[in-house]
Amino acid sequence: MAGTRASAETPSFAGRVDEENRFTEDGLEIMQVNVGRRCNLRCKHCHIDAGPDRTELMTRETMEACLSVFAGRGFKTLDITGGAPEMNPHLAWLLEQAHALGADLMVRSNLVILDLPEYRQMADCYAEYGVTLVASLPHYTQKAMEKQRGSNTFDQVIAQLQQLNARGYGKGGGLEIDLVYNPGGAFLPPDQASLEREYKQKLGSDFGVSFDHLFAITNNPLGRFGEFLERSGNLEGYMGKLVNAFNPGTLPSMMCRNQLSVGWDGRLYDCDFNQAADLACTGATSIFDYAGDPSLPLKREIRFGDHCYACCAGAGSSCGGATA
User: Fold this and answer.
1) Engineering a disulfide at 37: which of 54, 78, 294, 308 sits with its beta carbon 3.0 to 4.6 angstroms away?
2) Distance CA 193, CA 213 (A)
């Protein structure tokens, strides 16, 4: 979709945003950094087409620019995503440096990767720096999850959750692990609170697994999921569902209003979905622009595409789940 209209029948999302919500806040709290598109998996719902064959990885020089802007502009949370962030060889260094700056650290992991010998040490690193883990678990049953993630992935995730629980994650002692649910088809997620209770009951009783929160995220019609919608003839119908479920009350809480998203190459976006749609920020377009000129304002006009309906349907959706 690349930020364009899904069809002639889709009303422009930008036309439904009031003047105030067309802009970010004056000061931003979250810097989301995509450290690469390389991943050990090839999930069906992935909006950036991550996979084992991708070569894009953030360099240490770009990470240094991110840290400079983070420290100098009052950001509070460093949200690290991918691909599989663990496949960037500089991830442990980035966490160490950001921890020294006092950042609230968050890493989005598929957990399957922590079962591979070369990445197992990252669990120690996460615990050492108090990293909040946001772990993708599209469903709590093997069949439904592996339909999206691929065969032989469910047992690995459960094993990693059990090991993280043993390290203190998800036990209420300060090490937080949150799970992410993604719908397995062209439909919207159910109520987040009800789904969280269901996940906790099922994972607890079946596997002895505990976690802190569940985020129910609406699949965005981009990347691999967008290709599935087009291939299956579901794109127009899915966009219709998103448009019909549009909730103007979610506009003030759109994640783009309080964050800066940095691509693997340092280019700037309003969010990770705009990165997938190749919609760069207005104003400064590279993290190096901000690193080189501290006077450049962070506040900017947000760029919208019709894929943004996914963030404002029903209870809303962001990288942190429901927003309303």
Assistant:
1) 54
2) 9
- Least Cα distance to 180 among 273, 51, 319 occurs for 319
Q: In what order do the strands lie in the sheet with 77-81?
A: 213-216, 177-181, 132-136, 104-109, 77-81, 30-34, 259-262, 268-269
3-state secondary structure 249-307: HHHHHCHHHHEEEECCCCEEECCHHHHHHCCECCCCCEHHHHHHCCCCCCCCECCCCHH
As a whole number of angstroms, the distance between CA 143 and CA 148 comes to 9
Instruction: Give the angle 269-1-286 at the CA atoms, nearest 5°.
Output: 15
Q: Can you read off the two tokens belonging to residue 255?
A: 């994640």
Q: What burial class does residue 126 get, using C-beta atoms within 10 Å of its C-beta: 0-12 exposed, 13-18 middle, 19+ buried?
A: buried
For residue 51, give the amino acid letter: G
Asked whether residue 4 carries a pLDDT value surpassing 50, the answer given is no
How much is the pTM?
A: 0.93
Using a 10 angstrom Cβ sphere, with 0-12 exposed, 13-18 middle and 19 or more buried, the burial of residue 47 is: buried
Q: Of 183, 207, 181, 184, whose CA–CA distance to 193 is shortest?
A: 181
DSSP summary character for residue 220: P
Question: What are the distances in angstroms from CA 169 to CA 140, 197, 212, 276, 324?
Answer: 18, 18, 9, 31, 27
pLDDT digits 0-9 by tens, 208-257: 999 999 998 898 988 888 888 999 999 999 999 999 999 999 999 999 99
3-state secondary structure (DSSP) of residue 243: helix
Q: In this predicted structure, what is the pLDDT of residue 7?
A: 53
